[in-house]
Structures are given as C-alpha cells and as structure tokens.
C-alpha cells in the first residue's frame, strides 16, 4: 500500500510538471504545469524540435537527531522526440524486506492528444485524453486555463508578484556545461534570522538549479534545508539524438484500457476537490509529465 502511495505521489507531482516551459530555472520540476525533465505540462505547449534522452536521478537524504541517515533514490529515464512526444520510465525502490522495485511508464502524446500509463507488471495500457484548455473567462481575468492579460488589460491588471523579502537572495551563477549541454544556473538563499522562531542561530536554506535553455529542461537541482535534509537531482547519459518511434507506442502484448472519466482536467491538479498545487513540496496523494 505504501508503495502505491509513493508511486501516486511522484506521478502526480510529475504530471507536473511536467512542462519545461517559460517558468525557467528555479521552478519546481514536479509542480503541475511547471518545468520538468519530460518537457510538457498542462497549460503549456509541448516542446518540439528539441529531441533528447537522459536519465535523471533524484536523491533525498535526511539525518535524524541520533545521526541516522535516511536516503531515498528515484531514477527516471526520459525521452522526447521532435514532435514533443515524451516517455518517462520511473523506477521506485523496493519497500520492505519482501518488496520488489516498481516501474511506472508514462507516455505523453500531444499529436494523438493522449496520456498512456503502462502497467508493466500486468501488461495493461491505460489511455486517457489530454484535457482541452478552457477558454478565456473575460477581458483581464485569468480563470483556470485562461490566457494572461494582454494589451490594455495587461496594463490595468494588478501586480500580484511576490513581495520583496530582504531575507531572500538570488544569485546568478552564469553558465556551465552539464553532460555536454550548456545550462544557466541560479541560487536562491533564504535566511530565517536568529530568534525569529525560537532559533538560537540563523537558519539558512538554499535552492540551486541549472536549466538548459536549448532543451527547456532542468538538468541539475540541489535543495539544502535544515528542516528536511538535502534533495539533489542529477542527469546522466544525455543525448540529443532522435529517440526510436517505438518508445511512444503501446508495446505488443498489452491490453489497452480507456481510463474512467473522473473530471481529470477539472477536479485534479488544483481544481475543486482535487489535489492542491504544491510549491517545492506538493503534498502526497502531481518532469523529464
């Protein structure tokens, strides 16, 4: 049961995000509609003409008060073709003495307008339609799926950006090459001054992310938080070659099933009654979907 909850948590975060869109570096790769290795997301156009394949390894490390270290690692293999179709294969570690590693494969196809989940253990392919974006809700208004204000509406729209915080510092790290691809980096440092919440010394958290403008993919991430521990994401085996067409098809021998209509585009991913959108840590139950 715990394994299924873990799978659902990571997938829901991924159906995140899944877009590597205009949010740029620093946005959480598993937030719905945000950037991620898979390069797609709800509310964002698929990334086309930028094929790649890579393996992303996410490691979370937490130290308990007695010095015990807890480490959890999740590996994702991601492929995207020139049409913007993406495939993500996630391997979850075994939980418990008798458990086995669990693999989940998700194929996002903006051409066929479908999302397919392959249940490898039972050879079942569950196919659902990608929800159509909802139209504008009126001039200057942004309902779910509505476009941002433009023209005169943009000038009259109130600014709702985050307030300036003197305890938050953003550093431009320039550029560097990661696995053969140029990426630009940013570091965000947040400081809780001493005696703010009973803390005898300042508490500092850092978020560092490296983003490929060419591929529209976050290639590296590091979060250091004294409250939670350290989370890192690294990339390996990155190639810009066009992946095989067969990766985006249902394999032979699989039984294809249509997913039940449960208001996927309405109630889930922040919609009424669905999981709320998370920040850096979306609550468990949505990239590289």
Polypeptide structure, described:
This protein is mainly beta. Helix content is 7%, strand content 37%. The protein has two helices and twelve strands, in the order αββββββαββββββ. A twelve-stranded mixed sheet has the order 7-8-9-10-11-1-2-3-4-5-6-12, covered by helices on one side. β7 and β8 form a beta hairpin. The model is unreliable at 1-43, 136-157 and 264-289 (pLDDT under 50).
Structural class: mainly beta
H-E order: HEEEEEEHEEEEEE
What kind of sheet is the major sheet? 12 strands, mixed
Quote the average pLDDT: 74
Helix count equals 2
What overall form do the CA principal axes indicate?
A: globular
Instruction: Provide the spatial order of strands within the biggest beta sheet.
Output: 7-8-9-10-11-1-2-3-4-5-6-12
The first-to-last residue Cα distance is 23 Å
Output the radius of gyration. Answer: 20 Å
Query: What is the percent of helical residues?
Result: under 10%
């Amino acid at each position: 049961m715990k394994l299924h909850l873990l799978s659902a948590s990571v997938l829901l975060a991924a159906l995140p995000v899944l877009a590597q869109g205009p949010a740029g570096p620093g946005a959480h790769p598993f937030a719905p509609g945000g950037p991620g290795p898979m390069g797609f997301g709800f509310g964002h156009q698929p990334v086309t003409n930028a094929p790649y394949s890579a393996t992303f390894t996410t490691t979370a490390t937490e130290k308990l008060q007695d010095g015990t270290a807890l480490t959890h690692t999740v590996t994702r293999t991601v492929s995207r073709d020139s049409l913007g179709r993406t495939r993500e294969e996630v391997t979850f570690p075994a939980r418990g003495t008798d458990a086995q590693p669990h693999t989940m494969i998700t194929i996002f196809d903006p051409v066929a307008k479908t999302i397919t989940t392959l249940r490898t253990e039972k050879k079942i392919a569950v196919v659902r339609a990608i929800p159509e974006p909802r139209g504008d809700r009126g001039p200057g208004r942004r309902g779910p799926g509505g476009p941002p204000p433009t023209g005169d509406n943009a000038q009259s729209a109130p600014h709702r950006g985050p307030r300036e915080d003197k305890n938050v510092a953003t550093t431009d790290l320039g550029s560097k090459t990661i696995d053969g691809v140029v990426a630009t980096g940013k570091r965000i440092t947040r400081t809780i001054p001493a005696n703010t919440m009973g803390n005898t010394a300042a508490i500092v958290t850092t978020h560092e992310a490296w983003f490929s403008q060419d591929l529209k993919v976050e290639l590296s991430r590091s979060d250091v938080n004294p409250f939670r521990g350290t989370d890192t994401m690294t990339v390996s085996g990155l190639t810009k070659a066009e992946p095989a067409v067969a990766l985006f098809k249902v394999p032979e021998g699989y039984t294809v099933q249509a997913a039940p209509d449960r208001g996927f585009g309405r109630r889930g991913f922040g919609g009424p009654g669905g999981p709320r959108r998370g920040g850096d840590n979306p609550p468990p139950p949505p990239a590289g979907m």
